Amino acid sequence: MLRDDILTGRYRVGERLPSERDLAARFHASRGAVREAFRGLEQLGLATVGHGGARVSALEDANLDIIGPLLAVREVPDLDLIGQMLEVIGGLYRIALQQMIARATNEELDSVRAVIGQLADLSLTAEQQMAVRVRMGELLMEKSHNLLLRLINNSLRTQLVDPNQSGVLPKADASEFLKPVAQLDEAIKARNTEGADQTIGEIAAIDRRLILAAITQQLNQGKSAGAES
């Protein structure tokens, strides 16, 4: 795929891509299909298309929709990129929490506090705990009343979660959440943005560590299985 050739460095920034005719022959496709592929690359921000053909753009100029292909282009996902995504999502949560405290009604704050409190439930299965963590993030975004924040979060999360890897459900030791959850609950109740910011950062750090550890474990298992075969 031409997009993957760009992402893996086969074509350098500023380099002219092959002509429509050459690509149509290479991929056994019509020139109309190639033009459509060029439009797709342009929409992603990976190429600029003009009368003289298409040239590769810098990856830094691409848009958020490129994250999913970046994660999938290699057999082993880029853990550094995943870590960056989780850090950004954690930052979005912190912004959402601050805006929620400033804008939400007391009833809305109570609904969020009820979900956050479930993180410290020792009886939850891994699936149930993951559902609580996902729901907490959704509520923070919803009650922030910030549409742009929600759209960015949706884009990142959609591309981070691979439907073929839904079995990756890292479970935290609920005792880890006891202190930060209690502090976060008090901060939200008191509309203390500074205290809430600190504790949501601690919870996001636990989440990030768990997800990266689970993915690393899966990668190691895959490498071991490949070596045995």
Salient structural properties:
229 residues; mainly alpha; Arc Repressor Mutant, subunit A; Four Helix Bundle (Hemerythrin (Met), subunit A); 2 domains; two-stranded antiparallel ribbon; 10 helices
Write up this protein.
The protein is mainly α and 229 residues long. The protein folds into two domains: 2-62, Arc Repressor Mutant, subunit A (Orthogonal Bundle), CATH 1.10.10.10; 66-228, GntR ligand-binding domain-like (Four Helix Bundle (Hemerythrin (Met), subunit A), Up-down Bundle), CATH 1.20.120. Helices cover 68% and strands 3% of the residues. It is built from ten helices and two strands. Strands 1-2 form a two-stranded antiparallel ribbon. Strand 1 and strand 2 form a beta hairpin. Helix 2 (20-27) packs across helix 3 (31-44), helix 6 (106-117) packs antiparallel against helix 7 and helix 7 (126-144) runs antiparallel to helix 8. The longest helix is centred in the last third of the chain and has 36 residues, at 193-228. The two termini are 28 Å apart. Mean pLDDT is 87; it is low at 163-168.
